[in-house]
Amino acid sequence: MSETTIGTSSLADPAARRALMSGVTPEPGSAKRDPILKVDKIERRFGGITAVDVEHLEVQRGIITALIGPNGAGKTTFFNLITGFDKPSSAGSGAHWEFDGRALDKTSASSVAQAGMVRTFQLTKSLNRMTVMDNMMLGAQGQAGENLLKSVFKPLWRGQEKAVEEKARELLARFKLLEKKDDYAGSLSGGQRKLLEMARALMSDPKMIMLDEPMAGVNPALTQSLLGHIQSLRDEGMTVLFVEHDMHVVRHISDWVVVMAEGRVVAEGPADTVMSNQAVIDAYLGAHHDTDLGDDEVLSESALEEIEAEVRADEAAHEKHEGDKP
Amino acid sequence: MDTILDILGAVIREAISPGTAAVAIAVIGLNLHFGYTGLLNFGQSGFMLLGAYGFAISLVHDIPLPLAVLIGLGLAFVFALVLGIPTLQLRGDYLAIVTISAAEIIRFVGRLANLKDLTGGAQGIQGRTYQPAFVDLSFFGDGSFTLVPFNYTDVADGAGWVRALGGLVFAACVVAVVVLVRRAKRADDPAAAPAERRRGLVHKLLVALIVVIGLYAVFFAMPVTYGRSGVNGWWVRAVAWTLVALSTLVVYLLVRSPWGRLLRGVREDEDAMRSLGRNVFAIKMQSLVIGGLFGALGGMVYVLASTVQPDALGRQITFFAYTALLLGGAATILGPVLGTVLFFSARILIRESARAYVPDSVMSTQQTEQFSFIIVGVALVLLVIFRPQGILGNKRELRFNV
Amino acid sequence: MRKGLVGALLLSLLVPLLLLSGSPSANAATLCLPKPDETGCISGTVGSRAEPVAGVDVVLRDAEGNDVETVTTAEDGKFSFAVSEAGEYFVVLDEETLPDGLEQLPPRSAIAGPDGSVKVAAKLGTSVSPIVEVRSEDYDAGGESFTDQIAQSVVNGLRLGLLLALASLGLSLIYGTTGLSNFAHAEQVTLGGMVAYGLVNLAGINLWLGIVVTTVICAASGYLQDRLLWQPLRRRGLGLTQLMIVTIGLALAAQYAYQFFVGASLQKVVVRDFGTTTFGPVTLTNLSFLAMGVAIVAIAVVGYVLVRTRIGQATRAVSDNPALAAASGIDVDKIIRLVWTAAAGLAGLAGVLYALVISNGIRWDTGMQILLLLFAAVTLGGLGTAFGAFVGSIIIGLVVELAGPLGAPGDLKYAVALGILIVLLLVRPQGILGRAERVG
Fold it and tell me: Which segments cross the bilayer (chain C) (predicted)?
């Protein structure tokens, strides 16, 4: 049973990350120094529409990569494809992708997760009629008690169960959900569910975590803490790939940005460079192209604390309302 | 007064009949499918029928009893695999349609005139051709036995008030259990004080004690007499209810384990389970097989005291099983047993009351039977609408419908 | 038949002689009078009232298959047994004593007992009449050539398919718009037959008017159901699984309610005979042609409405995506109510026609017997697509009718259709015309 990694990676230092990525040409499909994920010729068509058509993409190990693009750019479908939740139309005709040196072309969603690439969903998939703790326990891999034959004999899995529970407590404490551990996951607020989903994904000690719009539907107060969590994951050595709409968020935390439009990768590069790229502005921004893409002012600490207080009050009211539901 | 006692006597005999126990075992299996894993298995009667056929045909061909049981279970195992492979990767409705169809196919095949030598065709297999192997195992001896041996007839020459007292004690026990269980549920709530939660074990023992007293009171006031052994005596009842208890225990051990957690995870969200690296297909298949084996076991118990009749194990039985499960409470340990006993008792209560109190000109004997089933159907509808968690289910859980 | 008649006449002359000589094998038929709680009677006629068969030994067996009593039919072909215990009995003719050239007609599967016997449920205080039919031995179903049989089966299959399509369209539309697998749809089909039985047979209304009125009444039942039950339940936010179990409860209640009010036997909608027409190798009752015509017209109308009218477009929009349909100004509740109304009406129409031309009457379980064929048809075509339901129904109809001539034992023809469904799901899970779904 491996412990949650609390150590710091050499890439916790921003300068180190900049140095790492400085040699990479900011163009679609550029080669990375140490790619953890490599994708080739992956295409998905629905009827006559091509939702995803990615020629080549590499994701650098140990940093936060953001995947952005306008609605319908194929980001979620791309996520589904590489995590085994969907099959590329180009399967068998050149489609190939590998994670950490292991080919994933024909791997099911569950094996992808077992290989160490764990994802979350845009619409959170918390297991509503189970407790927060049970949700967490399901995240841990390799449990002896999940074997049908061993499950009947408690002594065979009691020890491991304790260890898993201890780990779940640690993670819950870190994500400030510990006091909710006996509540049904369905009773949590949207933001808490996002946190729970992320914490649950971490139970398996993944090498790479893929977050599909982690901030969608999350109130601004929680956004800050979510961002903090994502950054600390990176600092501990995990690779993060996330889909996001909010440009402030992207600019704030990502080390590298990949832009998709109409199913293709149209640009890549550090956040600042990409956001001033004309192709991106054309494809992605449309009408809004004179507004500043990422204004860090909004995320300043003091402003956030004010919002946080407001939202806490809101959330308390919301929870009360949930509780009243028959 | 005598009419009422007759009715209650019929109700109690139905409640402890081997048929009720058999369906209870099948419902325990269905609970694993539907309650814990969320699988819409509408072919539980098919599993029962296969178990019954495998068991009875083996015995008719002089195969030893333990092997006959294994053959019945083996058939259900294969059936689960055959059903599961095409459908478990598909949406839930497909499983419902395919399982109900497959169960019907088994019934059609069992009825086939060409297979008459094996299955007895539409008429089925007579009980006397296979029951002796089981009846001969009885160590209960001969003669008849009254449950409970010390009953109202032994007190004050069986005066009416003694029986009434027994009834009152039973009623008091029911009330006490309801009150205690309700309080326990409140204590289970995470909002409750920890001190209240710690009282769990003492509390459980108390409830168990009251249940035992209540059961004694029932049989004290309404003693039941059957032969000790024989095809329809205490022997078959004892075996049937022991199997119910064992099945309940096995399911309890299974669902409290991490394996049981997998089932509930699949019920809540298959994609989430995939994203956590779980093989959803394998989990569902395991659940389908295990629940199906319970179905087959139920089928075997069902035919122990009757005949193997394909039409008796048709889809009606599956529907009754769902009603019983929802009545007791899906995804609860004791719900299936409680639900089944109440379901069958209530039907007999309705039927016998209608027979006794509704004049024949309004409702003939035949019609009282149908009337009781109409009530069952309507009750199922009302139950799902107004108390979907059943008697033992947790209402809090239902608030978060997926 | 003439041979049988001669034989019967001869026997009727012989019987008194036999009686006089004191036949050792059997008792003469004596009249049985039912007494409450004491005696139940099982009595009937061998042959028909017009052509009774006398002098035949009729054997009564108990539920265990033991011979209880044997009587010989009297001149009027009547036999009668008195039993002192209620329960299941079997009546069988002694083939030896049947006049030459006659044989017992195998009973319908529902009342068939072992060895060609007829099952009867005897009750104390009443008299029950098992139907024991005879036919001449040269009646031969296999007399036609194989190709002729196939041709006849194909036409029969189309007839069954069209009627199934009529019923399955509604099932499919309900599934498409609400996501609900309606297990009570079969009882809607039975309802059609039952209402028609009441209107046409009991009340004596003209058949054609009866069919129209039945369809309207059934449609009204769908409207009311949605209004009183389904819409409130949708508003309550009941899950689909729960709703499905509600339909099962309704189906159970309806089946037993039919038995309660109409009884458990087959009731004819019309007693009149409409004659048959033969085209080459194919012979069908004239009523069948009419039924197929009505079905085609009704299906065509539904198809036209779905494809060409605004309401049809709205319905398909709701099937595709209810939320989107609602957002684009479609009154989803109104569409669903319309679907329930139309579905119940179509099912009722299918029920009347089915009772008229296929099951030759209506019984509480008529609909239940085809429910799985309907589900198979809908699934085969692709869940929730109306056109798929039509194609699936025709295929299922053909499979069911062709299974016999192509070698499947008679009882298994329904099983064959269901087996095909299971195999198809292995190969093409979304059905023949269904679309593959996008995951996630």
Answer: 160-183, 195-223, 243-266, 287-307, 338-358, 370-400, 412-428
